[in-house]
Amino acid sequence: MGKWEITRTITCDVLVVGGGGAAAKAALTAYQSGAQVRIAVKSPWLKGGSTATAFSELLAIAAAIGHGDERDEPEIHYQDTMDAGRGFIDPALVRTLAEDAPKRINDLIDLGLNFDKQKNGKLVQGMSDFATYPRTCRVNGVTARHILNIIAKELKKNNVPIDEQMMVFQLVTDNEKRIVGAIAFDIDKNEFVFYQTSSVILACGGAHFLYTYGVGTPDMTGDGYAMAYQQGIPLVNMEFVQIGPGVINPPVTLLSGPVWKTHPILSNQKGERFLERYLPTGVNVKDVNNHKAFPFTVSNHSFYLDTSIQRESEDNPSPHGGVWCKMAPGSEAIVEEKMPKTKRVLKSKGIDVHSDKFEVGLVAQCMNGGSQITSPDGETDILGLFIAGETAGGLRGPDRPGGNSLAEGQVYGYRTGKAAAHYSMKHGKELSSQEWCIQEFQTIKQWIENSQNGTKDVLESIDELRRNMYRNCLVIRNEVRLMDAWEYLLKTEQDLEQGKYSVRLDTIKSALELRNMIITAKSIVLAALTRTESRSCHYREDFPQKDDNNWKKSIRIREVDGNMVAEEYEWPAEPIRTGVH
C-alpha cells in the first residue's frame, strides 16, 4: 500500500475520542456495560486537554448533595443553572445534570477518590457563581486531575485499550446516516487507521488554541466541533467563549477571582499604570478588582479590567503580547490568604509573586458552545454518534455556573457511555462499513494528492489564525474586527481546499488541525457577527447593550448547501416551576 492509504483497521463496539474526564468516564461506563471499547486520544494519555491540566483557586465539581447546606437539592441546582442560562440551554439536559451529579460523585468515591472532608466526615462544599447554596466539591486544589487519574486507574485495571497520539479526524456514515466508523491518523507511525465501529463518542474537549493563549494544551483545536459539523450536527452558542486574564509567560496559568482580591498592579511596556485611564466617573480600581471573577463579563465593573488589558496589549504590549503585573507592596498576608495555590504554582514556574513582575494576557478557558445533543443520553441526529463534555452543546449558555463543567463531564460521560454500548450491541452487527470507508477516504486522499505542489506553510497559517482570532474575536468585538477575521478564514479555507498548502506526510496532522480550526473559528465569528448585542462574555463594542427583546435565544450554526449559515434557535419549553426555589 502507498503512504496515502489506510494501512490498519481496528474493530470495536464503541470508540471514544478524547482523553479528558468525560472521555474517561464514557469509556469506563461503556466497558462496564459490556461493550468492547477503545479510546483514541490525540495527545499522550493523561498529558493533554483541559482535565489533565486544569487549575484555578476555585476548581471543583458541582453536585447538590447537601453537605455544605442541607437545604441544597438537585431541583435548586437545576433552577440555579437555568437562571444563569435561561433561553440559551436545554431544560431537559440541565435537569439530567442536576439530578445525576450526586450519583456521579458517589461513583468517584466508590473508586477511591478522596474528596476534601469536614471533621464530621461530610464533603467540604464551596460557594460558586450562580449557586444558592455551597455546592462545589474539591480534591486538594486540583480536582480535575484527581478525577481523571482515578478513572484512568480503573481503565488500566480493566485493560481498556488506549491509542495515544491518534488523531481521529473523519466520521464515516452510511447512506442512512448511521455511524459505521471513523478515520484517524497515527501521529507516531505516520499512517492512516480505520476504526470499524457502530458507536462513536466525541468527548475531545474544546478549542482553546484557536487563540494565541489558551488554558490546556495545543492539541485543543476544535476537532470534535468540526467533525460533528461536517456530519450536519448544528453548533450552538459558539459566540460565548470564556476568556479572562492569566499569566502568559512562562506557560499559561489562569488568574481566577481570588487573585484580583489582592489588588495587584498592572502596567504596560512603558511602565505606566493604565487601568485608571479606562474607568468612568464613579468607578475605581478597587471596585473593579473586587468584582473580578473568571471569565470576562459585561455584567459588572470587572469589564474594565479585561478590556483594558486587551487595549494595552495592542497599543503598548509586553514582550509576549500582554501587560505587566506585580503584587502591591505589603500584600504578603492577603496573597497567602486569597491565592496560596496560584502562588505555589507560579513559584514552580520560576515566578516569585512577591518580588517579580510577570506578564499577564487574556487566555481562552472554556467553550460555552458546542455540538448540539438532542437527548439526556448525549444523542445526535446521526445514529450511533454521541457527544459529551465540552464538545457537547446545550448545557452552557452565556454563563456557566462554577463546578458545572466537571459535573457535565461525569454525568454525560456516564450517560453516553451506557447509551453507546447499548446501541452498539443492538445494531452493530447490522452495519457494513468497508465501502463507506473507502468512499470517504478517497475524498481525503484526493485533497492530499492535490496539495503535493502547494507552497503555503501549514504551521505558519495555524499561528496566523490564532493571532487573527486573538486580535479580532477576543473580548473586544465589533463588525470591523469580526469581518476581518471572517474574510481571513474564508481565504485560508479556500486556499486549503484548492491545494495551495504543502501537505506532506509530516504535516498531515497540522493540515487536518488547520481544517478543523477554520471550521470552528468560522462558527465562533459568524455567531458573534450575528448576535448584535452584548451579553455576559460576548461584548460587541458597536452594540454595547443587552437586548432581551430580540436576543434572549441561541444562535445555531449549520451547513446548508455547502455554506455555513447562522439561524436563531428557541429551546424546548421549560417545565413549570415547582416552587421550591
UniProtKB/TrEMBL annotation:
GO molecular function, one term: steroid dehydrogenase activity, acting on the CH-CH group of donors
Domain FAD-dependent oxidoreductase 2 FAD-binding: 13-406
Pfam families, per the entry: FAD_binding_2, Succ_DH_flav_C
Domain Fumarate reductase/succinate dehydrogenase flavoprotein-like C-terminal: 463-557
Keywords of this entry: Flavoprotein, Oxidoreductase
InterPro entries recorded: FAD-dep_OxRdtase_2_FAD-bd (IPR003953), FAD/NAD-bd_sf (IPR036188), Fum_R/Succ_DH_flav-like_C_sf (IPR037099), Fum_Rdtase/Succ_DH_flav-like_C (IPR015939), SdhA/FrdA/AprA (IPR030664), Succ_DH/fumarate_Rdtase_cat_sf (IPR027477)
Protein name as annotated: Fumarate reductase (CoM/CoB) subunit A
Source taxonomy: Bacteria, Bacillati, Bacillota, Bacilli, Bacillales
